[in-house]
Amino acid sequence: MKDLAIYIHIPFCYSKCYYCDFCSYPNRYDIRDKYIDYLKREIDIYARKISSHHNVKTIFIGGGTPSYIEGRYMKELLNHIYKKFDVSNLEEVTIESNPKTLDEEKLKIYKESGINRISLGLQTMNDSLLKEIGRIHTSKDFLETFELVRKQGFDNVNADIMFNLPNQKVKDVEDSLIKIIDLGIEHISFYSLKVEEGTPFHKRNEKGNLNLPSEDTEREMYHHGINILEENGYKHYEISNFAKKGFQCQHNLFYWKLKPYIGLGMAAHSNINSERYGNVIDFKEYFTSIDNGNLPIDLENKEIIDREMEMAEYMILGLRLLDGINKLQFYNRFGVTLENTIGSSVLSKLEKQGLLIVGNQNIKLTRRGADLSNQVFMELLP
Amino acid sequence: MSKERQSRVRNFSIIAHIDHGKSTLADRLIEKTGLLTQREMKEQILDNMDLERERGITIKLQTIRLIYKAKDGKEYILNLIDTPGHVDFNYEVSRSLAACEGALLVVDAAQGVEAQTLANVYLAIEQDLEIVPVINKIDLPSARPDEVKQEVEDVIGLECDDAPLISAKDGLNIEEVLENIVEKVPAPQGDNDNPLKALIFDSYYDSYKGVIAYVRVVEGVVKPGTMIKMMATNKQFEVTEVGVMAPAHLPVDQLNAGDVGYVTASMKNVRDARVGDTITYAKNPTDSPLPGYKKVVPMVYCGIYPGEGEEFNNVRDALEKLQVNDASLVFEPETSVALGFGFRCGFLGLLHMEIIQERLEREFDLNIITTAPSVIYNVMKTDGKQITIQNPTNLPDESEIEYMEEPIVDLNIMSPTDYVGVIMDLCQNKRGIFKNMEYLEETRVSIHYEMPLNEVIYDFFDALKSKTRGYASMDYELKGYKRSELVKMDILINKELIDAFSLIVHEEKAYERGRIIVEKLKDVIPRHQFAVPIQATLGSKIIARETVRALKKDVLAKCYGGDITRKKKLLEKQKEGKKRMRQFGSVEVPQEAFLTVLKYDESK
Asked: pLDDT, tens digit, for every residue of A226-264?
């Protein structure tokens, strides 16, 4: 039996944030019932294929805004998985949520459904910045919701915090971090805004109307943030993720450690049996595929991962973790040493450039290497 | 029999200023002679290199045989040999003209006689060709055929009374042109019974037929089976095929004295059929070769190097192939610290240089790097010796130089009067010395300057085109050498001298040029993990400096399950880009950096 992670995509939200390029539709709320129904059918297809030799370790419900639709849908979905898969070792079930859309009733149902981790899309505690990036909630909404979350007994909570926002100051970042640290939150995703093509921010940026912090300021926000978080007992365990001891996100670790996962729902990605693929991103196509009894895969972007590529991915994703790659684990998985795979000249070059630390047991990024990780990853591609 | 046929042969070329309609006229002549069906007619059939089509100019020689039934009831064989229109290609023009007895002079009915046309007309007159004037574009509203006729008579001294007034575009009066050719251009002389004398005016390598030599037979006959000898090399071959261009290769039984056509003789190497050489019989050869062509002297030099992943040998082979039918191209191997093994190449002028570069890239599919063009400087050394320098890197140390001389050209710019001000500013800024200005007509002037060639080759032409919105044209001719205060400017990237960027510039221009180059380089050199200083220096003195800031952030903030494929593609793209860079010490410089520093920048 192999460990498996399951991701479920809920492509609905109240409104799109100005930076969002995820697959999410604010105006398709009416179709949610049908969509959930098809998700269950997709679960059935997978169950037939792989449930006999996989047991589910983690489930992550993302979006969109999964908390935007009624709580009962989550219950239905999760119960369906529990029925079709071996969940005897299930450790972590996360749901992403928007502070404005959670209430006591939903939280209760989540709890009953086995959800044990709540991820709150906060982004910043500065209300004017929240408005400026298109969020529908305020910092007060967040505080109230957080209280409800705790009241329902959720002891593993994440908040997303963004920096590099238009008009944001280093002080804003610091304030937001300190406020949520004071709440004792277990996990913090702390990531830099990237202006993605096709978003309203992108358009504004092209026109020069998006007052983004300078590159220097952006790095200052990051470094300052890291310092604050580390001083307060959060471990910087991935480039953009921080957790108190014992609260690293088990589900995301599947991605970074290149362990098998399947994605259910539109645009969700899977990596299983040496294949990586994404699902279609169109409702109609999604429904049609499942009606025909097929997995709703976008075949054009399906990738067969050969051994060489698997090793490269293992290193690239593994190095995102600040503990780096364990040499012995690498050897056990691939039957060759990490040093031989990278090559001694590349390895010593990256060391000399101050990007990589080659230790006795691990190879890991330096702090500078975390800033310039693409410079390292490029070298690791086959 | 053969004399009667010879009396029906006419060999002619067309002389015209760029865009006075030469190619269009050629198309019409082909159409009218009924050689091709409408469907076969590609537009502007003579310009068959892509490059020519794009730039609207004719570079390589083309020849075509037309059959025309004249009003006198006889069938004439008209051989049209195309000539390039640009002054850089004078050499090729004289090649085509040597194969002809006559030339059509096409003059634009609106614009009148242009300077470049004149140069070619004089070449034709020098070679005793009969010149047949044709006034084209009479369909234009601004056409003024009578004045232009008068102009041709005044300027060239050519009788123009019965010059055909045509519109090649509309196909108007084309018959008249053909009749004029038949009447005015003399039939070739020469005797089939004399020993063979045939002038090779072009040749190229064809993968099916081997080397194809385009010839004008002056005396004798050539046919398959003939044993021939190349007079310059004494090499002998047996002729396998002779034929004419109609417009594709059309084999014929023999080429007679006076004919124009092609010869193949299982020659493997284009050097076996050297342009300008005379072909004769292996046995019973002629006693003296035809005059051939005078050697041309290159005016502009630049380094051509294999780009990333390109083989030195491929570049050499391509240059050799181009040289065979373009003797004006010269090259020799050279080495650059920055770029490795390459070639120093000499060209007739700037256009010639660009054409060769583009042909290397397009026809031979080569990836090349070109260094900044240079001219030939005379260097008087303190020890009394005089040397010439075409590569700035070879300039002796300052202490060994008594003084230097640079080439000066007579520059002639023709432009609508509206742009006189900006042109004069530009020329002044390029160290030009104003000579005079003539009104060609009320709204058109010809402005004469003396200018260092070194300024002309930098970005003058692009600047002129840009500042006059393409309305001005220019032409230059070497005038001589002049003592000048010149200095060698070096470019240092990350404190390392990149010899391929070195330039010889006038002292007064050094600061400006240095500043522009380092600014441009700053924009094209990617950010590295460390700060990269870019400096322009004169000797040990730094005259300009910019810094490419160190890369502070190169990271993907988010990478979850759905991001991996996309982000991996980004990384692969980034890696690809890196591969195409040139490594100078620890700095990577993209190939386009070499181009960028040469290009005219409109913003400045």
From this structure: 999 999 999 999 999 999 999 999 999 999 999 999 999
Kindly determine whether residue A192 and residue B557, on different chains, have CB atoms separated by under 8 Å. Answer: yes
In this complex, the residue of A7, A216, A320 whose CB is nearest that of residue B561 is A7
- Rounded Cα–Cα distance for residues B90 and B159 (Å): 25
C-beta of residue A19 within 8 angstroms of C-beta of residue A201: yes
3-state SS class at B62: coil
Complex ipTM: 0.89
Element of type H or E holding A80 = helix A71-84
Query: Can you spell out the DSSP letters for B171-227?
Result: TBTHHHHHHHHHHHSPPP---TTSPPEEEEEEEEEETTTEEEEEEEEEES-B-TT-E
Give the pLDDT band (50/70/90) at residue A296.
very high
Cα of A142 vs its chain's centroid, Å: 20
Whole-number percent of chain B with pLDDT over 90: 33
- Check if the beta carbon of residue B370 is closer than 8 Å to that of residue B473: no
CATH architecture entry for A2-255: Alpha-Beta Barrel (3.20)
Cis omega before residue B289 (within 30°)? no
Q: Which helix (H) or strand (E) holds B508?
A: none
Handedness of CA A318, A321, A324, A330 (dihedral sign): negative
Which letter does DSSP use for residue B85 in this model?
-
CA A219 to CA A144: how far, in whole Å?
A: 31
C-beta separation of B550 from B528 below 8 A: yes
Q: Where along chain A do its domains lie? A: 2-255, 325-380
The string of DSSP letters for A325-358 reads EEHHHHHHHHSS-HHHHH-HHHHHHHHHTTSEEE
CB contact under 8 A, A271 and B561: yes
> Is B552 an 8 Å CB contact of chain A?
yes
Task: For residue B83, name the pLDDT band (cuts at 50, 70, 90).
Answer: low
